Amino acid sequence: MNSSMIKTIVLAILATSLTASLMIYPKESFEASLRGLTMWWEVVFPSLLPFFIVSELLIGFGVVTFIGTLLNPFMRPVFRVPGVGGFVWAMGLASGFPAGAKLTARLRQEKKLSRLEAERLVTFTNASNPLFIFGAVAVGFFHNPTLGVVLALAHYLGNFCVGFVMRFHGGKETSPQTTGLQPNRNFKDAIKSLHEERLKDGRPIGKLLGDAVQSSINTLLMIGGFIILFSVLNQLLSLIGVLTLLSSFISILFTFLALPSELSMPLIAGLFEITLGSQLTSEANATLFQQVIIASFILAFSGFSVQAQVASILAETDIRFKPYFIARILHGIFASVIVILLWKPLYVSQVEVGHDGTIPVFLQEQSWNWIITGWNSLVQFGSLITLFGLLLYIGIRTKRALMVK
């Protein structure tokens, strides 16, 4: 029996087991599915939709080519990717998972990146957005906005380290020259490239906007499916005892790392789904320092749910998933180590109130009002944005279907 046949049998058994589990635990599966749907409906869709639409418009108008021409002298020496990678990096940091993968795949399809360049770029342009780190994790789960600074710095500095390490991916193999990315061009040439790119696209503004909305919502519907699936999968694995079994192995590793075994279950949950893992970590019986180390790893690893979303997006291109997966492990390690290094200077020194009664800036509640207000507004009005977006999507699809007929 060859390896391909064994793989087929294993996948068939896993699919059958999942179906049987759904039938055995219908109530729990429904509740888990509803939790995933709520997260997507209230937070993920409204937070990602504007970034996805704007990024599609910027690509169509040639702004990405313009930015790429200017950033080429920085991005190539540091990360061995073209300057357009700077745009992808910025959008990925601002909007969160899996925007970096979507933009990288799009640029690869347009031949603005070689396969090696795309594989390097996707490894460090997928990150959790600041609103989730500060609003959901620091404020929502830990009820401590000061932790947001430590978690965010560890997360983004870790991403930078991953990008620098992954520049060696492919060894000394040179990437073929990609279109519109010639190095050492001045500002005038960048403006010319912007104009040429817009003319090359050729779509009128109305068509470009409609395509941007349709493409963005298609991607978000796929993301929603993965969020719901992994929310159910995580619940089923917990019910049948698989997570408990895995956590026992992690507990052995934690004894060598001087971490309490109580954090093993939250870590296992976080390996599957980032939100649930972060929440369980904040509730675990451990010191705050230990909790933050694990939470930082979970945020960086991003969970199999996000990784499945990225794999689905990359499957439309020739970009391999393996470098991305390796980078997530590296990111988790880097982020955890950076938390250890930054804990005393950025957190301990901030929570120690001075002898004269002064309170550090990071602890003044008004300093964090914009984060708390932003997160609460997203949760409150996110469902309305999602509903409007879906209605707009249905309208565009209906209109185009009628035009075809």
Q: Could you name the ranges where pLDDT drops below 50 across 5 or more consecutive residues?
A: 353-359
Mean pLDDT: 82
Query: Which structural class matches the secondary elements?
Result: mainly alpha
| Rg (C-alpha, Å) | 22 Å
Helix count from the secondary structure assignment: 17
Number of domain units = 1
> What is the element string, with H for helices and E for strands?
HHHHHHHHHHHHHHHHH
Q: Determine the fraction of residues in helical runs and give it as a percent range.
A: over 70%
Walkthrough of the structure:
The protein has one domain (26-351, 362-404). The protein is globular. By secondary structure, it is mainly alpha-helical. Helices cover 78% and strands 0% of the residues. It is built from 17 helices and no strands. The model is unreliable at 353-359 (pLDDT under 50). 43% of the residues are buried.
